[in-house]
Every structure is written in C-alpha cells, then in structure tokens.
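User: Structure with KG4, tokens only please.
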Amino acid sequence: MKILGIESSCDETAASVVEDGRVLLSNVVNSQIDIHSVYGGVVPEVAARSHIEVINPVINQALTDANCSWDDIDAIAVTYAPGLIGSLLVGTLAARTLAVLKNKPLYPIHHVEAHVYANFLNEAAPVFPMLALIVSGGHSQLVLFRDHGDYELLGQTQDDAVGEAFDKVAKILGLTYPGGPSVAKAALNGDPKRYVLPKAKLTGVYDFSFSGLKTAVLRAVQRETGVDFTFPSGELSARLNDVQRNDFAASFQYTAISTLVDKAEKAFRDYSPKSVVIAGGVAANQELRRQLSERLPLHIDYAPMQLCTDNAAMIATLGYYYAQKKQPTDPMELEVIPSLSMTNTTW
Ligand code: KG4
Ligand code: ZN
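Assistant:
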C-alpha cells in the first residue's frame, strides 16, 4: 500500500510517498527557514503564503521521486492538527482536493503522534510496549505506547517546550534562528560545567518545566556581563565573548537534556518498555542521543536527522497504520484543529 503524505503545519511544506509504513520512496521538504530567520521566528501569515506557493510542486516532486503516477497511490494522509491554522489549511485543502479529484481515501493525521512514527522507518521497527520521548518546538511529552493508537501520556511540560527553550536561549545568546541547531553547534566548543543551572522540581514524576531554566540563563548572562535586569535582554548578547557564549550554550544544553533524560530513565525503570524512541525536532540533538544511550540499558535506534524535524514521511507512515484500523474521512468534511493534544486521539 503506497501512501502519499502531506505536511504543512508550521514552516515546512513537505510531501512523501511511503510503502506499507516501512519503505521510504520519496521525501521532499521545502523549508522556510531562510524566509523566517530575518524575523527571528515563524511569521504565521508569511508561512501560509509560502505554503501556497510551493505545495503543488512539492507534491509533484514527491510523486516523481517515488517513480509513481496517481494510479500507484492508494491513499492520502495529511496533517490536520496541531499547528498554525493558516499553514494547516493549505495542506489539508490540497489533500482534500486531491482526494476528491483522484478518488483516493483520505486519512487525517496528528502531527505530534506522527513524529513518533519516523522511527518505524528505521531498519528495525520499534516493538511495543514502546516509550516515546517527544521533544519538539511545541511539545515535550513522555508517552507509553502499548500498540498503534493505544497510548498513555505519562508526563509533559508544564510551561515551555524544550525546543522553545533552545530557541529562546539562542536569542539571549545572540545565536541564529532556529535556536536548537545553533545552540548545539556552539555547545560543541563550550564547557557544560562552567555555569551551574537549576533543574526544575515538579510534583508530576514524569513532568518537565523549561521556563525557569531559560530565565536562569538570562539572569546568569546578566550577572556575567555585569548589567542588571533592567538592561534590554535583546542587547545582552553583544556583551558576551565567544568563550562565554559557547559555555552558556553547553551549560544550558547539558541541563535541559539531562532533565529530559532523568524523566525518561525514571519512566523506563517504572514501565520496562521493550523499546525507547525519541521524536520531534530536538531528537536531532546529539547530546540527547549521547546521554540517553549512556543511561538506558537497551539499544536505541535513532531516526536519521532529516526524519526528526518536520517531514511528510512520518505522516505517510502513521497513515499506513491508521488505515489498517480506521475508516477514511470524508474529504468534504475534514477540518483543521490548531490545538489538539495527542492524548485525545487514541484510536
Ligand atoms: O518538530 P519540529 O521540527 O517542529 C515542531 O513541530 O515544533 O521541531 C522544531 C524544534 C525547534 O525548536 C528547533 O530549535 C529544535 O526543534 N531543534 C533542535 C535541534 N534541531 C532542531 N533542538 C536541539 N538540538 C538540535 N540539534
Ligand atoms: Zn514537528
């Protein structure tokens, strides 16, 4: 069964063809990073307009790369939640139109759940029960999957997502957008022990919090540069030298990642899953991979970098498993849901 996946929930326009939820036939991603980096973050209106410009060529390219005509495609899977409303509308409207025109079954896919399914394209698919650490720009969650569509949310962030913390700390340090990769790069040359930053203590044993850590970085930068808290935070980074900047990046990354790994390790000991996967943009972080592999007593297969950040292969892969259990949706009826928590979608 060949599924065409379509993804446009944030600032990547993507299409991909995946066979039987296992074989990646094409993976086209048009990133808008260059467009948004001027503004230091995603501008929703600009994102939606850019999706409109490229969605058709991206879909056509995915079919061409997969060596497929429309006759070869068995179904369409599209992200309908969560994300930016204008962005989601472009992908879903394209998918709905194509489903009607080409007479294909249409499956609505939850973006955050789909991130986990990038791991099903690994050489060895994960086995259940599976512990998933989902870490992106909008989400930080620990989820126990008992089967496809049968999962339990163990814990989540109480404030900022970890990717959001990377992005905000990058701004404080004067590093480029998106913050995750630039903080990780600066951290390679930094001392993770130079600045001792606090780990949040929370009542929920598997919950996270990253807002206090971000503020702690801000206060430490203010202390280090000798200005008080009334100094505009946007101008702070000019007062840091490269050594300080790298040491702050490394110290922040070390603390943020070990907070994630502490909770993942606790969940692993309590639930004894047969596999552990990481998913979402922050899953591309090498320090996360290093610490997890060091602390968990099982082999972890990590998804390739390009399948960790937003892509449509994960949408097509989850679409395959979804199609095994669920009826397709009516293309005339499909609506987008910009904020929909993953726990409400067990199927
Ligand atoms: O999953 P994703 O592509 O989009 C969302 O659904 O949010 O995740 C984007 C997030 C951004 O916050 C970005 O800074 C972060 O993932 N990210 C990273 C790395 N690469 C991307 N964070 C830490 N280390 C990385 N190497
Ligand atoms: Zn994402």
